[in-house]
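Item description
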Amino acid sequence: MKSKLDSTAALGKFIRTCRRAKGLSLAQAERRSGVDLTYWSRLERNELRSPNPRHLSAVASALEVPYQELFGLAGYYLPADLPSLRPYLRAKYALDSEGIAEVERVFAAIRDRRIRRRSE
């Protein structure tokens, strides 16, 4: 099982990668999110063991990624009753049942592979 420190390392890398992919400097990210650029920098360098959820939500919004992604990487509990992929895939990508089943199979294979790697 990953430690909290491992999770925040992944969080920092993910945030930096997303910010750079959007072509944002730290100053631009600060203006977009309202989160101080020093905080952004500390997030990206994995200096925060328990990042503030309010700031994570603002960062997610600025990066246009689901806040659940950042919360999960930060090691925060996410409710088990989150919706399945089905409604999202149907609404966003207009996938039919066959297409949704195909995506779910791919995701299940990725999940299983990742679980096996963690246990090794």
Summary: The chain has two domains: 4-73, 85-119. The two ends are 10 Å apart (CA to CA).
